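Q: I'm building a small set of examples for a reading group on sequence design. Run inverse folding on the following structure and report the sequence directly after it, with nothing in between.
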């Protein structure tokens, strides 16, 4: 399906088709809860599973995830489930929303729970980031661990969980292993206020989601040090170039990076303080340690691990990524943020010319 056709499909269909099969959402953090609520709003019967039994008990009682998504009520067609086998073992459709470091473990557990049903499973995920130990993207890990499952899709784009939970207008991208499953997953999410476009470029969509988290730490560092709006937009612009270079080296399509999952997600994450990654950069610029900042933020900050994973992937592929290198120096090597950002702004951002 062409990009234009996908966008027409998203704009002209304001609500999802009726009678979709039930879907299980794995992961009851802020984004998993928001996606479960959105799927239920779109008319699906949804089961939400989380590993924290006390949290799941609270969700069952209060019908609201006050810890991670305060103010958003769980619809009646959303069932909270703490039993793994009941949630995942019989599901025909599964959407995983867990941090990247937990993605492998969930896939392994899903393979055991599904057994022979796995070949018919329709699987999607909202997990973003390279696996740190292997450098694999989520779809590569899924192919490796679940080769018998042929229906994969990634859900990504410029979104904040609180706004999705509140029902505010949102647009995302669903990129899948086959157009039919991508379209069905997009339809399962779609309502009048929630537009879901489709793509066949899983590599590009996943790279956009992985790299933007690290770049958002850099934007927070720059703003926290008082370098101003001019420096921020230079960092975002050049960051998009770096993201695109890595993506093209890994087989992605260039047009993906000027869409929602590329430029859209990057700009949102770098400029709004709802972003945990941007807040990490702001905290580091104020003199806090990574541990102090993470405790203050209270949720997983994917950009810390992403900075290392993206830097190492760039090294393996010999891709020049000077902004990522400086962010890596801060979060991995412990370089003073002021020294790293000044080095970047004074030397690296202009290297190679406007199109370098």
């Amino acid at each position: 399906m062409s990009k234009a056709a996908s966008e027409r499909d998203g704009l002209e269909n304001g609500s999802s088709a009726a009678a979709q099969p039930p879907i299980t959402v794995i992961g009851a953090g802020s984004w998993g809860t928001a996606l479960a609520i959105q799927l239920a709003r779109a008319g699906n019967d949804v089961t939400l599973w989380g590993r924290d039994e006390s949290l799941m008990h609270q969700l069952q009682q209060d019908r609201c995830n006050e810890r991670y998504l305060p103010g958003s009520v769980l619809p009646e067609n959303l069932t909270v489930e703490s039993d793994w086998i009941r949630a995942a073992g019989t599901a025909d459709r599964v959407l995983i929303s867990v941090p990247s470091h937990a993605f492998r473990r969930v896939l392994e557990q899903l393979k055991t729970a599904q057994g022979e049903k796995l070949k018919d499973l329709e699987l999607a995920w909202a997990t973003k980031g390279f696996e740190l130990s292997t450098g694999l993207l989520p779809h590569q890990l899924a192919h490796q661990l679940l080769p018998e499952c042929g229906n994969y899709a990634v859900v990504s784009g410029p979104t904040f969980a609180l706004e999705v939970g509140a029902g505010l207008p949102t647009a995302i991208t669903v990129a899948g292993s086959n157009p039919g499953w991508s379209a069905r997953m997009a339809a399962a999410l779609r309502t009048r206020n929630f537009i879901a476009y489709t793509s066949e470029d899983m590599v590009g969509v996943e790279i956009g989601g992985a790299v933007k988290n690290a770049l958002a730490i850099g934007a927070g560092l720059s703003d926290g040090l008082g370098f101003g709006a001019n420096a921020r937009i230079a960092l975002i612009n050049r960051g998009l170039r770096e993201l695109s270079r890595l993506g093209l080296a890994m087989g992605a399509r260039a047009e993906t990076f000027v869409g929602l999952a590329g430029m859209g997600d990057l700009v949102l994450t770098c400029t709004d303080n709802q972003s945990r990654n941007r807040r990490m950069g702001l905290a580091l610029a104020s003199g806090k340690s990574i541990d102090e900042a993470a405790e203050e933020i209270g949720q997983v900050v994917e950009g810390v691990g992403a900075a290392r994973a993206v830097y190492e992937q760039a090294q393996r592929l010999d891709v020049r990524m000077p902004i990522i290198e400086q962010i890596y120096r801060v979060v991995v090597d412990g370089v003073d943020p002021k020294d790293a950002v000044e080095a970047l702004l004074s030397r690296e951002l202009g290297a190679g010319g406007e199109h370098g």
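The two ends are 32 Å apart (CA to CA).
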